[in-house]
Write a structure and sequence with these properties.
Blueprint lengths: L13 E5 L5 E5 L6 E5 L22 H4 L1 H9 L2 H25 L8 E4 L3 H10 L5 H4 L2 E4 L1 H6 L11
Antiparallel strand pairs: 1-2, 2-3, 4-5
Helix pairs in contact: 2-3
Length: 160
């Protein structure tokens, strides 16, 4: 069951019954409430992921950039995991430092900043949460137009 976070009331906002590996039903309030949604993994197969081979990816694409970290995690090598993760993080810090020195702000390739988010506001109102853009460096939404214009290689496009 899902409850309001800052409420002494024990009235659930939603309840879920079933099994995540089978089918489950989400209801408003208690288990006898109105059905909000149902989900059945047998009828909701995951979409096939279409990803370019690592060697064809841009050096900053996640799977290529984090490949050595993922391999080290898979092998259980925590020292190597930390080493490669540190390399990536330091490279990112250097990129941000250079951008700051050059007076350039990183241009997000797929997201745009917005003042509000109606979906968050609707859901947040139900549990007493509000947007706090100053704590999250803004509110970001997927931008379909930006995504359509994005072309590889990304790391050589002068951050536009």
């Amino acid at each position: 069951m899902l409850y309001k976070t800052e409420s002494s009331e024990k009235e659930p906002l939603y309840s879920v019954e079933g099994q995540w590996t089978e089918a489950f039903t989400i209801r408003e309030g208690k288990k006898s409430g109105k059905v909000v949604d149902t989900w059945d993994p047998k009828t909701n197969k995951p979409a096939v992921l279409d990803v370019a081979p690592i060697e064809d990816q841009d050096e900053l694409e996640s799977r290529r950039a984090w490949q050595k970290v993922a391999q080290a995690i898979y092998r259980g090598d925590l020292d190597e995991t930390a080493y490669y993760k540190g390399l990536i993080e330091n490279q990112q810090r250097e990129m941000r430092k250079k951008e700051k020195e050059d007076g350039v702000e990183w241009q997000r390739r797929y997201f745009s900043q917005t003042e509000n988010d109606p979906t968050f506001e609707k859901l947040g109102n139900e549990i007493g949460e509000t947007l706090e853009p100053e704590k999250t460096n803004g509110v970001w939404r997927w931008d379909e137009e930006k995504a359509k214009r994005a072309k590889a290689p990304f790391s050589t496009q002068n951050n536009k």
